[in-house]
Specification:
By secondary structure, the protein is of the alpha+beta class. The protein contains eight helices and 15 strands. The structure holds 2,5-anhydro-1,6-di-O-phosphono-D-glucitol and manganese (II) ion (2 copies).
Length: about 350
């Protein structure tokens, strides 16, 4: 009966209050991120109405075409996050270098990394897209000085919080602060994110696989054999997994998180490190999926244990339901050893 008053902001503050010595700064950061998400959500919803579609004509640091909404989202995140006094630096998929906090704002003890708009090639077709973020504590002294590269280049296991926002048939904000995974749906009339997915657990058994099968020819033999294995499930008296591939990592992983599945962006003969970015995409998604009971590996190692060397480095990723990741790992290892 009535409204569910567990808003995202309340949930975050109540969660932080349980931690002895917590200052409330992380809560404030997550709250500010949710404001940016609301603004981006509004703009994404208007995308077909205003003259915002199409390319800016520029390339981002990865040499890919940037759409206007990518830059809009990047700017909104920066503007929502630069003045809170909790961050000492930021980094974004859309900017080559570390982003400094302007001198006239206070600097704090956290670092924020983000992919402002994920799946942007889908915008024109009204397909789900997202925002991904990752938060670390700085390792250089918290003395008001600018954050440095080493503050950003920490392995994923050092994340203190991570999350994503899916702009789909509704807007959903999913986050973890290391104590489970929670999802909040934006009520457009109320203007608030309300708890809709409490303590999300990914089914141990997958029923979906998500991979760009167009690249089959370039895959390594172990991966080809694994995909063949799941497609041959009928031979073992089981229903084969369904293929579902949107081409927006956030949306693909969100669906697999709820239904059980594996998402793969592998290394292949053309791209030895795969396509997806360790700092903006793979680490935050790995933190979420592990917190929900799943796994995320690069083929042999846990994604979150990789020591980063570059803000924009790419890494192959196998992520999702535990049983499926265990199985693909077995196939990849057999291949390495043969
Ligand atoms: P972005 O829009 O941030 O550049 O990311 C796109 C990514 C990711 O969302 C998706 O999983 C992947 O690109 C799809 O790549 P393919 O088109 O090669 O399958
Ligand atoms: Mn992306
Ligand atoms: Mn992006």
């Amino acid at each position: 009966m009535g409204i569910n008053f567990m808003t995202l902001t309340r949930h975050i503050y109540e969660g932080e209050r349980k931690i002895p010595g917590a200052t409330g700064e992380l809560s404030a950061l997550l709250h500010e991120l949710s404001l940016a998400a609301k603004v981006i959500s509004l703009e994404v919803n208007k995308a077909g109405l205003v003259d915002i579609l199409g390319f800016t004509g520029d390339n981002n640091v990865h040499g890919e075409k940037v759409k206007k909404l990518d830059m809009y989202s990047h700017d909104m995140l920066f503007r929502a996050m630069d003045h809170g006094g909790h961050l000492c630096a930021m980094a974004s998929e859309e900017e080559e270098d570390i982003i400094h906090i302007p001198d006239h704002h206070k600097r704090g003890k956290y670092v924020l990394l983000f992919d402002p708009l994920d799946g942007s090639s889908n915008i024109d077709a009204n397909v789900s897209i997202g925002t991904i973020f990752s938060i670390y504590k700085r390792i250089t002294p918290d003395d008001g000085s600018p954050g440095r590269m080493e503050d950003c280049l920490q392995p994923g296991i050092k994340q203190v919080a991570a999350g994503y926002v899916v702009y789909g048939s509704s807007t959903i904000f999913v986050y973890t602060a290391g104590d489970g995974v929670y999802g909040f749906t934006l009520d457009p009339a109320f203007g608030e994110f309300l708890l809709s997915h409490n303590n999300i657990r990914i089914p141990e058994q997958a029923s979906i696989y998500s991979i760009n099968e167009g690249n089959y020819k370039y895959w390594k033999p172990g991966l080809k054999k694994y995909i063949k294995y799941i497609q041959d499930a009928y031979d073992r008296g089981r229903k084969p997994y369904s293929t579902r591939y949107i081409g927006s990592m956030v949306a693909d992983i969100h669906r697999n998180l709820l239904y059980g599945g594996i998402f793969i962006y592998p290394a292949d003969r053309r791209n030895p490190n795969g396509k997806l970015r360790l700092m903006y995409e793979c680490n935050p998604m790995a933190f979420i999926i592990e917190q929900a009971g799943g796994r995320a590996i690069d083929g042999s190692k846990r994604i979150m244990e990789i020591q980063p060397t570059d803000l924009h480095q790419r890494v192959p990723i196998y992520i999702g339901s535990k049983n499926a990741v265990d199985k693909v790992e077995e196939y990849l290892q057999k291949d390495e050893n043969s």
